[in-house]
Design brief:
The chain contains two helices and ten strands; from the N terminus they run E-E-H-E-H-E-E-E-E-E-E-E. It has helices at 57-65, 71-74, and strands at residues 24-34, 38-48, 69-70, 77-84, 91-97, 107-111, 122-125, 131-136, 152-157, 160-165. A hairpin with a 5-residue loop joins strand 7 (122-125) and strand 8. The two termini are 39 Å apart.
């Protein structure tokens, strides 16, 4: 599949509606297996959780530990979001205030409400210590209006990540 070469752990937390009753998880997964072309695949699995011992938790705990820190926990802010440019050159511009940014080359992933989608963001260091984010809005996205509260920006580095939900003024 695109993006994965070996294995991936996608952790999730499940809370029973009634803790006194056994719980089962059921998954229907549609995915693509890709090399030169992608072939669609489908899988359905079920896992009963009634009194199961806590085995196999190490990969799940490791995946949970790698989740991005929230902006609040990192003391970070995303500010001044605006949509600039016109037509196929529209782009999101914003400032990120990260007291302690992740190390290494940084990647900014910008997610917006459907049907908007963004190309990978570009980060540059400003003289005032803020990072400037520019992310081109994909031409096929359509809408010219952007709900800043629905934005999600994740900054990933070699040693961690920070996730911003919504954008301040």
């Amino acid at each position: 599949t695109l993006g994965y070469k070996h294995e991936v752990t996608l952790p999730l937390k499940a809370t029973p509606v009634d803790p006194s009753r056994p719980m089962a998880l059921r998954l229907s997964l549609a995915y693509g297996v890709c090399a030169d072309i992608c072939m669609p695949e489908m899988a359905e699995v079920a896992l009963p959780l009634a009194g199961a011992p806590n085995r196999g938790l190490a990969p799940i705990e490791a995946a949970l530990a790698r989740l991005p820190a929230t902006a609040a926990a990192a003391g970070a802010r995303l500010e001044g979001c605006r949509l600039a440019g016109a037509q196929d050159e529209r782009r999101l511009e914003a400032e990120l205030r990260l007291p302690k940014p992740p190390r290494g080359p940084l990647l900014a992933v910008v997610e917006g409400p459907e049907p908007l989608w963004f190309e990978p963001g570009r980060l540059t260091q400003g003289e005032d210590g803020a990072m400037r984010l520019t992310a081109r809005l994909a031409p096929a996205s359509g809408a010219a209006w952007l709900d800043r509260t629905a934005l999600r920006v994740t900054v990933l580095g070699a040693d961690g990540a920070v996730a911003f939900e919504g954008c301040g003024s």
